[in-house]
């Protein structure tokens, strides 16, 4: 049977649901393209993660074949200044003179070859991340829609719990049906979570292709959504044990639902018979009162039967 404590948790759940509706991950898949570093920068970042003992200067010599800190001076910033250097290189795509070629050949360090497999690794990583972010956004929409249904059910369920505790003259099976609808909604949300949660591995992959200063703009948004989802999931798990049928499997809930529907039809039919009861159709008033009492007792027995199903 639902309790005041359960109703309090339902209201808490409704507030969390409202918070989630404001946190949809819309626009993430479009935003992600603008946050990616260039392929060469991402190569440097990937190497730095795989080889944490390498200094930034060592990484520049390995990837760019140049001492960028020395060239740029005090304005140099790791994972930012490289973009300026790459832009300069793009502008200088004119054919080199023989002298320039010889000078280039004599340089001690050479940039990493664009044919190196790590460039393919970076490109594949970006493609994978874009795909996962798109799916994450879509699954977050699915989850939000399921949660929105829950938001509509909660107020009715709180009312239903009061009806269940009221005299048998109320529509008890209908009230319990609302509560079971809530439990079905819980199942729906948890099913959507099973699709959503595995995609969160993308959060750890973002650091390979997005600079640290921009990382939080996307990770923060995802984790804010996840925090609310975790709160909803925790509250749902706590509620299930205090609501009618909360510990039942989906099949058991369906069986109970059918039984309650059957009882509800009998109560509706009994109500109809009571409304159509006319003293003029009986030989004596005593016969009328006897039939009326018989129908009322039947409705009471049906209501008790519904309660026992809990």
Q: What is the radius of gyration computed over CA atoms, rounded to a whole number of angstroms? A: 33 Å
What is the CATH C-level name of the largest domain? Answer: Mainly Alpha
Measured between the Cα atoms of the first and last residue, the distance is: 7 Å
Helix count, per DSSP? 13
| Domain unit count | 3
Beta-strand residue fraction = under 5%
Number of strands: 0
Order of helices and strands: HHHHHHHHHHHHH
Overall body shape: rod-shaped
| Chain-averaged pLDDT | 78
CATH topology of the largest domain: Four Helix Bundle (Hemerythrin (Met), subunit A)
CATH architectural group of the largest domain: Up-down Bundle
What about the largest sheet? none
Poorly predicted regions? 162-166
Helix content estimate:
over 70%
Q: Specify the structural class.
A: mainly alpha
Written overview of the protein:
The model is unreliable at about 160-165 (pLDDT under 50). With about 300 residues, the protein is mainly alpha-helical. About 75% of the residues lie in helices and about 0% in strands. Helix 2 (about 30-35) packs antiparallel against helix 8 (about 115-165). The protein has helices at about 5-20, 30-35, 40-50, 55-65, 70, 80-90, 100-105, 115-165, 170-195, 200-205, 210-240, 250-275, 285-310. The protein folds into 3 domains: about 5-35 and about 120-250, Four Helix Bundle (Hemerythrin (Met), subunit A); about 50-115, no CATH class; about 255-310. It has 13 helices and no strands.
Jot down its keywords:
single chain, mainly alpha, 73% helix, 310 residues, Four Helix Bundle (Hemerythrin (Met), subunit A), 13 helices, 3 domains
């Amino acid at each position: 049977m639902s309790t005041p404590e359960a109703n309090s948790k339902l209201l808490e759940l409704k507030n969390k649901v409202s918070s989630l509706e404001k946190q949809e991950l819309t626009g993430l898949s479009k935003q992600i393209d603008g946050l990616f570093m260039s392929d060469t920068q991402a190569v440097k970042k990937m190497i730095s993660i795989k080889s944490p003992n390498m200094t930034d200067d060592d990484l520049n010599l390995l990837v760019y074949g140049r001492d960028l800190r020395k060239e740029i001076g005090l304005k140099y910033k790791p994972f930012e200044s490289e973009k300026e250097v790459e832009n300069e290189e793009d502008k200088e795509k004119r054919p080199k003179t023989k002298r320039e070629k010889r000078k280039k050949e004599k340089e001690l360090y050479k940039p990493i070859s664009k044919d190196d497999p790590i460039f393919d690794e970076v490109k594949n990583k970006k493609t994978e991340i874009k795909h996962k972010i798109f799916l994450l956004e879509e699954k977050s929409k699915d989850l939000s829609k399921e949660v929105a249904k829950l938001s509509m059910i909660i107020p009715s369920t709180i009312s239903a719990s009061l009806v269940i505790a009221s005299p048998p003259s109320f529509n008890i099976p209908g009230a319990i049906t609302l509560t079971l609808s809530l439990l079905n909604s819980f199942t729906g949300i948890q099913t959507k979570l099973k699709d959503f949660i595995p995609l969160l591995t993308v959060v750890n992959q973002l650091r390979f292709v997005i600079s640290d200063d921009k990382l939080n703009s996307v990770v923060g948004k995802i984790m804010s959504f996840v925090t609310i989802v975790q709160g909803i999931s925790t509250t749902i798990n706590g509620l299930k044990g205090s609501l009618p049928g909360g510990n039942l499997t989906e099949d058991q809930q369906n069986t109970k639902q059918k039984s309650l529907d059957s009882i509800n039809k009998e109560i509706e039919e009994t109500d109809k018979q009571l409304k159509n009861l006319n003293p003029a159709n009986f030989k004596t008033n005593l016969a009328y009162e006897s039939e009326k009492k018989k129908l009322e007792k039947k409705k009471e027995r049906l209501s008790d039967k519904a309660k026992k199903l809990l």
